[in-house]
Amino acid sequence: MFSYVYMKVLETVPRRYDLGINLLSLGMVGKVKGDMASMVEEGDRVLDMGCGTGTLAVLMADRGAKVTGIISTAMLEVAIEKAAARGLNDRIEFREMGVAEMDSLEDGSFDKVTATLVFSELSRDEQEYALREAHRLLKDGGLLIIADEVVPEIDSCCLSCLLLSALKKTFYHLTRIPLLILTFVLTQTSTRPVKGLKEKMREAGFRIISTKRAFSLETVIAEKEGLIRPSEP
Ligand SMILES: C[S@@+](CC[C@H](N)C(=O)[O-])C[C@H]1O[C@@H](n2cnc3c(N)ncnc32)[C@H](O)[C@@H]1O
């Protein structure tokens, strides 16, 4: 099962990150990125927030998209080498930039914004800011696609859904306790799976189109709608 603890450890060895993350997620992360890339069309302008070693950026550029990947760590070097090895330098621009620094990017300049395994590393304020910025940076009708470790939500549409979702949520939290301890021992950080992602996306002015869950990894696709709250750092 995919786990944040391994992810944090792997981030410290960027050159082994891709292999490690795919082995440890049993190929799930690679598959999710393949699915996300398949939503990109030739000529799309795409922003990949927290692009890591550039795997998703390269997949999307391979499909003819113009990609801007932003990242704040040593993974940048690996990403640049990977794009160069695929001859995709003219289609991908990697920028050393935190999600809190996106104000230099132009309004409505992207068709799609993607983020894989990034929101779980952001504080609640950063998450809300990143969502508002994604809204500002997207063209009308543009898509925001987020894949991350997300806390299961309670579904209260009927009694059986309520019971089943409560059971899933309890199981999820129970399995996380040993991982929380292990994460702290190995990395001195705590885990922060994303809570209430869909609600936050709606508040930022997105309409949820679809969600797909594989264990704790959820992919949410949403479309830019009217702005509800102004963007502020
Ligand atoms: C687990 S890695 C995921 C990388 C890549 N998206 C992937 O799926 O392979 C998390 C990434 O988020 C980036 N990140 C974390 N906090 C960030 C922030 N505030 N601004 C920009 N990037 C951030 C890290 O540098 C790292 O590259």
Q: Can you summarize this structure?
A:
The protein is of the alpha/beta class and 233 residues long.
How would you sum up this structure, described in words?
This protein is α/β, with parallel strands linked by helices. It has one domain (4-151, 192-224): Rossmann fold. It has eight helices and seven strands; from the N terminus they run αααβαβαββαβααββ. The chain has a seven-stranded mixed β-sheet with strand order 3-2-1-4-5-7-6, with helices on both faces. α4 links the parallel β1 and β2. α1 (4-11) runs antiparallel to α2, α1 runs parallel beside α7 and α3 packs parallel to α4. The longest helix is centred in the last third of the chain and has 29 residues, at 159-187. It is globular and about 55 Å long. The relative contact order is 0.15. The mean pLDDT is 86. The structure holds S-adenosylmethionine. S-adenosylmethionine (SAM) binds next to α1.
What's the count of strands?
7
Distance between the termini: 35 Å
Write out the CATH superfamily name.
Vaccinia Virus protein VP39
Strand content: 15-25%
* Radius of gyration over C-alpha positions, nearest whole angstrom: 17 Å
Strand order of the largest sheet: 3-2-1-4-5-7-6
Helix content: 40-55%
Class from secondary-structure proportions: alpha/beta
Largest β-sheet summary: 7 strands, mixed
The helix/strand series, from N terminus to C terminus, equals HHHEHEHEEHEHHEE
Task: Tell me the CATH topology.
Answer: Rossmann fold
Molecular shape: globular
User: Ligands bound here?
Assistant: S-adenosylmethionine
Query: Overall pLDDT, averaged?
Result: 86
Unreliable spans are none
Q: What is the number of helices? A: 8
CATH class: Alpha Beta
What is the architecture at the second tier of CATH? 3-Layer(aba) Sandwich
